[in-house]
Write a structure and sequence with these properties.
This protein is of the alpha+beta class. It folds into 2 domains: 60 residues; 130 residues, Immunoglobulin-like (Sandwich). The chain contains 1 helix and 11 strands. The strands form 3 sheets. The chain has a 5-stranded mixed beta sheet, with no helix packed on it. A hairpin with an 8-residue loop joins strand 10 and strand 11. The longest helix is centred in the first third of the chain and has 57 residues. The N and C termini lie far apart (108 Å). The N terminus is likely disordered.
Length: 204
């Protein structure tokens, strides 16, 4: 028994239904592919942005300015940074720190003595955050908070308020990497919102 025209009509509907499903399947694959490409592009853009920011930060180098742009004065010379003045009076390397009240401490240290003068019209707060040490490999060292017991109390500058026109004697100690050399001291203007700095060549 032949189905005739009805059979062909049913067959066409089946074929059309299968074709529609196939088209929908292709469209789904295309949509997924487009989403994947867009997602990858967005990720690459974000990664590029992050890498760009990191490169911009690296270009600045350690210590606020690239090494070739730092104009360093020698130890003993006055250095004016904004409304304050610094004079490094002594700088030395040490393998041991001693104190009347502390056990000797072994390590690699750079000890810096200085005079700080407030030339502004208002009191400023002097602390170790205003100083940093940069070596010949452009590595930056911060003051070692665990060595404050080896500093003369008269030279301890922790949150020390300095009034206008007053000079304060200070000392800081840096723990540095073994073999580090060619040190430059970076000195700020005590304003936490400023990036103005001056530099002193320690000579070793």
């Amino acid at each position: 028994m032949s189905l005739g025209g009805k059979g062909r009509l049913v067959g066409r509907k089946i074929l059309m239904g299968c074709g529609g499903l196939a088209i929908l399947g292709v469209l789904g694959i295309v949509a997924v592919g487009c989403l994947a490409v867009l997602s990858s592009s967005g990720s690459d853009t974000a990664d590029s942005s992050i890498e760009g920011n990191e490169s911009a930060q690296d270009d600045g180098g350690s210590g606020g300015q690239p090494a070739e742009e730092r104009q360093a004065v020698p130890v003993g010379e006055n250095l004016t940074v904004a409304d304050v003045a610094w004079q490094v009076t002594n700088a030395r390397q040490a393998n041991q720190l001693t104190s009347e009240f502390q056990e000797p401490k072994q390590g690699n240290f750079v000890v810096v003595d200085f005079a700080f003068t407030n030339n502004g019209s208002e009191a400023v707060t002097l602390d170790s955050e205003s100083l940093a040490l940069i070596d010949g490999e452009d590595r930056t060292f911060e003051t070692d908070n665990e060595t404050f017991g080896y500093i003369d109390p008269a030279k301890d500058i922790f949150l020390d308020q300095v009034n206008p026109g007053v000079t304060q004697q200070g000392e800081v100690i840096f723990t540095v990497a073994p073999g580090a050399s060619d040190f430059t001291l970076e000195l700020g203007d005590t304003d936490m919102f400023s990036d103005e700095n001056g530099y002193v060549d320690l000579g070793f």
